[in-house]
């Protein structure tokens, strides 16, 4: 017969073993700061993700990086060192996601970014081998904008964007795609996410007399350049990026963002998609789940990036569980491999087919063109 002390030790060991069996997911989002309008719906969506996958309990730990790159890196290290996570989802912004790459690659923990820039996942080198993402890249969306500009017979375009990796990535993609379609970029300006005035930059753009202007920004801070353009009497077409596709942009911008044209994930206008569109059903499913919890018209494309990350997890975790137990280096490696091999996952934003060369796996079906009309998003045919 076991002595009480030995029984207690056995029970503690069993309890520890069970604890290690949980799949631990760390989440880093910008739920405060300039990117909060993106990060809040991402954070909210975690509550809609499955609590059990492949018969294993999933434990989520959410940290706020306050839209700050240094804080994002600190949060990633904390999740890896203190929480022993098997996977990180995040973060919201491009600069912070880029900064987190070295942290996760060094620790060999897979990460699914919620930010846009193609530079987060390409090229798939030794560092980026551990990094995946769910938002459409700036490259995918810039191609759609340039195509729409050509259809609208636009010959010249001005640009104003964030003075960080997000804005620079968009400028690079605009220049490349515009040149391919015979469109000349005649002015380029930058501004900070927290700036309260862009009058000087807008006056320089107006002096170049462009047919259209692209604003390479995200969230509520993207309202400022469009409002300034309108205040200065600009009548050309104004394009935004998919980084503004949420209700806060419409609420804060009001009449100043009327007419804005942008590429967006299909989920934004899921109810306007034809029945034959494969993303319609998933988009409506996410929209209904989110709005049932957070209120009518509260859904945004950014929360859907978290939802799609959850779909990738649901496909990859059962595969990894066949090879190793959660909480081990072997499991994290198997999870990385499983994510890389994920095929035909129909998400709210598109159909994901990942590979060793492509850690996003979306194609042109992941984008639609929309316009702000009467304070709502309208699908452009």
How is this fold's topology laid out?
Blueprint: H1 4-21, E1 23-29, H2 36-46, E2 52-53, E3 56-64, H3 69-81, E4 87-90, H4 94-107, E5 111-113, E6 131-133, H5 138-151, E7 156-162, H6 165-180, E8 184-191, H7 199-207, E9 212-216, H8 223-231, E10 237-240, H9 247-253, E11 261-264, H10 280-294, H11 301-321, H12 329-340, E12 345-346, E13 351-352, E14 368-373, E15 376-379
Parallel strand pairs: 1-3, 1-4, 4-5, 5-6, 7-8, 7-9, 9-10
Antiparallel strand pairs: 2-3, 11-14, 12-13, 14-15
Helix pairs in contact: 2-11, 3-4, 5-6, 11-12
Can you characterise this structure?
With 381 residues, the chain is α/β, with parallel strands linked by helices. It has twelve helices and 15 strands. The strands form four sheets. It has a six-stranded mixed beta sheet, sandwiched between helices. A four-stranded parallel beta sheet has the order 8-7-9-10, with helices on both faces. Helix 2 (36-46) packs across helix 11 and helix 3 packs parallel to helix 4 (94-107). The N and C termini lie far apart (77 Å). Residues 9-20 have low confidence and may be disordered.
């Amino acid at each position: 017969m076991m002595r009480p002390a030995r029984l207690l030790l056995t029970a503690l060991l069993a309890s520890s073993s069970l604890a290690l069996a949980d799949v631990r997911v760390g989440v880093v989002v910008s739920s405060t700061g300039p990117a909060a309008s993106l990060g809040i719906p991402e954070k909210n969506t975690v509550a809609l993700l499955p609590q059990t996958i492949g018969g294993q309990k999933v434990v989520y730990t959410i940290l706020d990086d306050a839209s700050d790159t240094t804080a994002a890196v600190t949060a990633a290290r904390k999740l890896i060192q203190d929480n022993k996570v098997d996977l990180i989802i995040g973060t919201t912004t491009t600069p912070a996601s880029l900064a987190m790459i070295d942290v996760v690659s060094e620790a060999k923990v897979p990460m699914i970014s919620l930010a846009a820039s193609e530079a987060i996942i390409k090229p798939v080198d030794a560092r980026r081998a551990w990094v995946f993402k769910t938002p459409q890249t700036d490259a995918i969306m810039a191609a759609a904008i340039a195509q729409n500009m050509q259809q609208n017979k636009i010959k010249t375009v001005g640009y104003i964007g964030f003075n960080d990796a997000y804005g620079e990535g968009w400028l690079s993609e605009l220049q490349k795609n515009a040149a391919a379609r015979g469109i000349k970029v005649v002015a380029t300006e930058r501004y900070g996410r927290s700036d309260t005035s862009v009058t000087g930059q807008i006056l320089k753009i107006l002096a170049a007399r462009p047919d259209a202007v692209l604003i390479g920004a995200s969230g509520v801070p993207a309202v400022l350049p469009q409002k300034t353009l309108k205040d200065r009497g600009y009548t050309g077409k104004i394009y935004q990026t998919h980084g503004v596709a949420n209700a806060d942009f419409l609420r804060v911008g009001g009449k100043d963002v009327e007419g804005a044209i942008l590429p967006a994930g299909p989920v934004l206008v899921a109810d306007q998609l034809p029945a034959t569109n494969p993303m319609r059903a998933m988009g409506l499913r996410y929209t209904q789940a989110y709005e049932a919890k957070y209120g009518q018209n509260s859904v945004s494309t950014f929360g859907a990036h978290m939802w799609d990350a959850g779909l990738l997890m649901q496909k990859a975790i059962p595969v990894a569980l066949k090879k190793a137990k959660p909480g081990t280096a072997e499991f994290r490696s198997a999870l990385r491999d499983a994510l890389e091999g994920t095929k035909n996952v129909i998400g709210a934003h598109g159909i994901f087919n990942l590979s060793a060369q492509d850690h996003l796996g979306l194609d042109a079906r992941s984008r639609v063109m929309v316009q702000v009309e009467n304070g709502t998003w309208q699908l452009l045919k």
